[in-house]
Amino acid sequence: MVAAPGQKVRVKANITPSQWSTAWNGMRNITRSVLAELRPLGAKQVNLRLNTSGTESKLPVFIDWLAVKEVTDILNQKSGIKDYGVYRFGDPLTSKVYDETVDKVGKGIVRRDWKCDQLLREKRVQSRLLVQKAGLMYQQFIGIVAEQRGRRRCVGILTVSFRRKPRKLSDVDAKMKEWASWPKNPRSGGYPKSKLVEYIEQRVVLGGPTV
User: Fold this and answer.
1) Which pLDDT does position 7 carry in this prediction?
2) Can you tell me the distance from the alpha carbon of 95 to that of 56, in angstroms, rounded to the nearest whole number?
3) pTM of the entire structure?
4) What are phi and psi of 116, to 5 degrees?
5) In the chain, where does DSSP find H-type helix?
6) Residue ranges making up the domain that contains 84
7) Helix, strand, or coil here: 110?
8) For the chain, how many structural domains are there in total?
9) In sequence order, what are the residues at sequence separation of 6 or more whose Cβ sits closer than 8 angstroms to the Cβ of residue 53?
10) What is the CATH number of the domain that holds 177?
11) N or C: which terminus of the chain has fewer CB atoms within 10 Å of its end residue's CB?
């Protein structure tokens, strides 16, 4: 079933971009904005996973994957895949780092330097090969906070990838917290909503643990 314009779409395993219709196009535009803002800080790729709609469990589904042209060209040459966001859309990928990131929402950003062999073993073969092919060996993960029907949830995570640990780490952290709608003052309870979170609240049936 194809979503009508303005209709809330559901997150579930093995969905396709065409089933999301205009909601997919809007999400891709926002992913572009996230990458554009983080690129001056060294980011080469971003991806978004959201929890399965209508559940409080941690059941992630890939929603988008976007990289700068140099990375996209490398992966296209090696794999023949032109758009990994389309290719991986609907992938029900579970991972240790996903669970850890959701558990730390509002408390801390999760970091991984995949040059460490022990950490690299966490990744599925498909994900590990993708990281190695693209040369993006440092990643940061943050839980996204959104609200619907008076319930605030960790609805998924935003991942930002670099070739190496960024020099301006505090600036990267601050920008990621803005996009994930973390409060500037946790005690205040006020969550400023980013364009990403506003769109998710308006167009997606949310899922994930309450926070």
Assistant:
1) 85
2) 17
3) 0.89
4) -80, 115
5) 17-20, 22-38, 69-79, 84-88, 96-103, 117-120, 125-134, 169-180, 195-203
6) 9-205
7) strand
8) 1
9) 10, 11, 12, 204, 205, 206, 207
10) 3.30.450.40
11) N
